[in-house]
Amino acid sequence: MDKTIRDHIRKRRDEEDNDMVYFVQNCIGAIYGTHIPVSVSLDEAAPFRNRKGTLSQNIMMACDFDLNFTFVSAGWERSATDARVLRSAKNSGFHVSAGKFYLVHGGYANTSSFPAPYRGVRYHLNEFGAGRRRTQNYKELFNHRHAILRNVIERAFGVLKKRLPILKVATSHKIWIQVKIPIATALLHNIIKAINEDEQWLDDQQDNIPPENFVDLPDGDEGNEHADNQGNNLRDIIAHKMWNDYQRHRN
After folding, report:
1. Cα dist. 100→4, 21, 24, 26, 244 in Å?
2. How many CA atoms within 13 Å lie on the side-chain side of 12?
3. Dihedral (CA of 79, 65, 23, 144) sign
4. What secondary structure letter does DSSP report for 124?
5. Of 57, 93, 196, 221, which is most buried with the most CB atoms under 10 A?
6. Do 156 and 69 contact (CB within 8 A), yes or no?
């Protein structure tokens, strides 16, 4: 397990924050919906054109708390939403055991297997940093802790792109090969990580692809999927229990 997450669990155990520990222990990892540049003919470009005007494929990556990628779904046109890609992955063997879940961003529907943050409530870690006001209610607290845990896949994907910057550029390969590139890079990342845990050496590496060739891409989908009642109820139960523990330890 990643050291940051492990330390966070230990801190919550020391504070007897049982609901946060439950939240962590039943969380398998996080899901990341993102875009990877593609190169296609003019006739095929329209479905791949994103809101920044560049061409990209929409991919879904699942990551555990050891920063290993556990599932990749690639090859979707930009017009496919993150939620649609996830639904297809579930129909293609991506399974979540009962009582377990992956954390997702706000572009996905909130369900019991894929808890999303509360919308319209501050979420990103820099919104809770030094000089910011403390969490004010159960929704903010849930979002803050959700962001802490989900940050693991942001870090993993950041390492992946730094290690294999081919993910930042469009290549001249046939489209069926371009679809396989994200999958191949995830496998290489896992193998390299298994052999050598140290990633600090990446900070001193020169760019082997000129940064001016990197493609400008959007961050992800806007939140437009409807949650289900079971997912909302579970999130509210966890969030209220977290808030009660938080209030008890703060007072």
Report:
1. 21, 13, 10, 5, 23
2. 21
3. negative
4. S
5. 57
6. yes
Which amino acid is present at 156? A
The predicted pLDDT at position 50 comes to 82
Q: How far apart are CA 34 and CA 59, in angstroms?
A: 6
Q: Strand 69-77: give its sheet, edge to edge.
A: 69-77, 56-64, 27-37, 101-103
Extract the residue ranges of the chain whose pLDDT is less than 50. 2, 9-10, 12-17, 217, 224
H and E: helices and strands count for the chain: 6, 4
How would you classify the pairing of strands 101-103 and 27-37? parallel
> DSSP 3-state assignment of 237?
helix
Amino acid letter, residue 64: D
Distance CA 143, CA 147 (A): 6
Cβ atoms 124, 146 nearer than 8 A: no
Look up tokens 């523990």; give the residue. 245
Q: What's the pLDDT at 14?
A: 46
What is the pLDDT, as a whole number, of residue 105? 87
- CA-CA distance, 79 to 96, in Å (whole number)? 26
Contact (Cβ atoms closer than 8 angstroms) between residue 179 and residue 57: yes
